[in-house]
Amino acid sequence: MKAFTITKYGKKEELQLADVATPILKDNEVLVKIHAAGLNLLDAKIKSGEFKMILPYKLPLILGHDVAGAITQVGKNVKQFRVGDEVYSRPSDFSIGTFAEFIAIDHRDIALKPKNLSMEEAASIPLVALTAWQALVEKANLQKGQKVFIQAGSGGVGTIAIQLAKHLGATVATTASEKSFEMLKKLGADVVIDYKKEDFETILKDYDVVLNSQDTKTLEKSLRMLKPGGKAISISGPPTPDFARAISAPWFVKIILSLISWGIRSKSKKLEVDYSFLFMQANGEQLQEISKLIEQQAIRPVIDRVFPFEQTNEALKYVESGHAKGKVVVKMESYKKF
Predict the structure, then answer these.
(1) Which of 34, 154, 284, 296 could form a disulfide with 69 if both were Cys (CB 3.0 to 4.6 A apart)?
(2) Measured torsion, CA atoms of residues 25, 66, 35, 123, in degrees rounded to the nearest 10
(3) pLDDT grade for 135, boundaries at 50, 70 and 90
(4) What is the DSSP code (8-state) at residue 30?
(5) pLDDT, tens digit, for every residue of 240-281?
(6) Which residues, other chains included, contact 136 with Cβ-Cβ below 8 Å and sequence gap of 6+?
(7) pLDDT, position 53
(8) CA angle, 174 as apex, 39 and 117 as ends, to 5°?
């Protein structure tokens, strides 16, 4: 099969289109013929080597963390899915590889594709929606009437997190450039701040939750606009010792992450707020809950551009540029519906 691989880490390295073996199915897996794959900044960070301490992949590696397609084969232990089912997924770490014609995925990481979405729309959803769910539902336990600040509202995570937070009954504030204001208000944002002209710290006070996706300086400011007992959840770091323990990292990684996050953890403690780092995990059951919200039209995908599969490098560069509003997807032209 055709797949885009990396053979060495580097920011300037490009993905290489190669012929590789079609995955051999394990008993708990399904084989998915890929129709569309979503791209994420995580793909670029892995390619550059930024995450090799946390995610020590063996090279060559097929990148890609979002997929929509149809099942062509099922392992003998798989009972709830059948050949021909249209599914979508964020495969588990160390089992990624959606920039390809086929992928084998553990059945616990997949869900049936929402009936009201195209394959391209479905491929844009898993990673960002699971990130939003695990941040706002699992970690924050966001409740009706609470106030949440979601940074970078026009990004992939932001567009979904705003809709989920609004569905949960929260008041939602976000940052963006002025040209995105109309879109974000339609998604449910109550307060939209122009990050080029305004300082959110002078506008937002006594918030319950912050979903941080920006740099450390922005995170520090976010801690100060939380009420005592508020929660700051960061998807951009710094990772904490708790995270190192959760992934069973080596002892030296725990020490490094403890040092890296010491400043933020100390400041949050002084302000009497809670800081945690979220590295999203694959979860088919949660994705199925997200599917229900999509079919109820409580959440809708936001796609900026769809590239043909052969332009995956161009698509990834566009993601890295930071100009995308919503998600970027690559499409397999050769896909045939079952």
Answers:
(1) 34
(2) 140
(3) very high
(4) E
(5) 999 888 888 899 999 999 999 999 999 999 999 999 999 999
(6) 142, 148, 161, 164, 165, 168, 209, 211
(7) 86
(8) 40
Mean pLDDT of 185-197: 97
DSSP state of 240: -
Question: 293 and 251 in contact (C-beta within 8 Å)?
Answer: no
Q: Are strands 147-150 and 207-212 parallel, antiparallel or unpaired?
A: parallel
* ∠ Cα 323 328 329 (to 5°): 160
Can you tell me the distance from the alpha carbon of 127 to that of 66, in angstroms, rounded to the nearest whole number?
Answer: 6
**Closest Cα partner for 91 from 335, 269, 301, 280?**
280
**Stretch 131-150: mean pLDDT, rounded?**
98
Strands 327-331, 303-308: pairing is parallel
Which tokens sit at 218? 């922005």
Tokens read off for 323 = 């100009």
> Confidence class of residue 334 from pLDDT cuts 50, 70 and 90?
low
Rounded to a whole number of angstroms, the CA Rg of the chain reads 20
317/298 Cα distance (integer angstroms) = 31
Dist. CA 172–CA 147, nearest whole Å:
6
pLDDT score recorded for residue 338 = 33
Beta-bridge partners for 149: 173, 210
Tokens of 106: 């553990």
Say what the pLDDT of residue 188 is.
98
Of the chain, the end-to-end C-alpha distance in Å amounts to 19
Residue 137 has pLDDT above 90, yes or no: yes
Backbone angles phi, psi at 87, to 5 degrees: -135, 165
* Helical residues (DSSP H) of the chain, grouped into ranges: 41-48, 119-123, 126-133, 156-167, 181-187, 200-203, 216-224, 241-246, 251-270, 284-295, 312-321
Structure tokens at 287: 């994705």
Separation CA 243–CA 258 (nearest Å): 10
